[in-house]
Amino acid sequence: MLRIGQLKLNPDHSQNDLLQKIAKTLRISEKEIKGYQIKKQSIDARKKPMIQYVYTVDVDVANERQILKKQKGNQVSIVNEKPYCFPESGAEKMQERPIIIGSGPAGLFCAYMLAEHGYKPIVFERGASVEERAADIESFWETGVLNTASNVQFGEGGAGTFSDGKLNTLVKDPIGRNRKVLEIFVKNGAPEEILYINKPHIGTDILIDVVRNMRNQIIAWGGEVHFHSQFTDFALEDGKLKSITILTKDRKTMIPAETLVLAIGHSARDTFSMLYEKKLELTAKSFAVGVRVEHPQEWINASQYGENSPYKLPSAAYKVAANLENGRGVYSFCMCPGGYVVNASSEEGMLAVNGMSYHARDGKNANSAIIVTVTLEDFGSEHPLAGMYFQQKLEKKAFEEGNGLVPVQRFEDFCNNEASNSLGKVVPQIKGAYKLANVRSIFPEAIASSIEFGIKSFDKQIHRFSDKDVVLSGVESRTSSPVRIVRNDALEVENTGIFPCGEGAGYAGGITSAAMDGMKIAEMIRKKFRSFDEI
Questions:
Q1: C-alpha angle 320-326-332 in degrees, rounded to nearest 5
Q2: CB within 8 A of 457, min separation 6: which ones?
Q3: For the chain, where do the domains classified as CATH 3.50.50.60 start and end?
Q4: SS3 content of the chain, % helix, strand, coil (to 5)
């Protein structure tokens, strides 16, 4: 297979234009091309108004070596990619079916891989199925009545299901887990384009169906998935896992257990507290907090693509970061082109926001988190749950500032530390009711001033980023887990049979990295045990 990089075409090109470009680059006729596969597609808008799509393409041809000899430079090379390979099974007999707590991306992919290979996993999810959950969330946004067991944070698919379904990751991946994650998503209904676009996303609307299809496949392979089933306790015997306790409605059930995957998500605060009380080793970890910032999508498009671009291009994204004189770093996170800010609360009397987009990304506004890293210094304690308590404190202030609604503030008023009493050119696009307020008052001044200076500095990169009418909402507090559950080189807690997994355990940050960590746990279980199909 020959790989061609840096194939550039105008945005309005046809499929035949790409084929012709491949043939011309290889100096062969189109008839000599047996087939080709797009490996990467990105947009190059550095030389506005000239905008180009840039491709990396793998091409199937005869006489690869002879064709390669004709090439100049290093645009063309021979590739022999090895697909991801699940390991061979271990020799130990599994006495109990593996149990997975949580059906976010980490738990879902761990269960999917185990089920496919005959381990018949049992998944317990404290929240609702993705269909029921979607209805619960829409009801919350419309009425303000929170279901603490089924919301943007809790339920099948995890928090990422209602956060656009962004799939880009910076995790190093020498054995192909990333590609496998994308292939599994596509197999279960995601658009094929996620296999090659530069920053792939599925969209909340499509991701709901993909997650349901994955669950049905797990069940078809012999696994089980139980909803409204909360993990509340576990027992060890001679240092090994003996049983777990599951709460369903008002009934507690003790279940024999040998292998337990803790894919609990970054918001399972009661579970973190229980694990701490049971003396599992937890450590506080740095994360980030801040606000959601909204701009009209047309402003972002004009800045990124140029004014009056003649091409039909996707809603533009951005990524910004700055190191401030006060020593803090501030940066954008979870940017949602053509998206919505959402009320992402999961506890009574507390309020958190997030961002989401549908697959089309055709909403009026762009939004992104603008966040500042916080550490033990900010927490004021070295307690393992200090970061969690810090989150709760900010969320309580946000709830109070908005009187239960999402607090919203114009940027000019944020800078002046004054509650907004009117909107300007930017109208919030928020799922859930909002209230004009003083978002700045939610934060310690060191964080608030960092957000202000960061947004002002980003104006140098994106025109009108710090416009006085830009809208801020808060608090963005669930960027990642505030806790790490310590695991050894075998990804296990002291050889107990307990495997902390994913973002909630402190080992991932986003859908793809969490899914990849779930796969890693499945691989470790596979290497240790024979499957039930092999017994």
A1: 20
A2: 322, 324
A3: 99-283+481-534
A4: 30, 25, 40
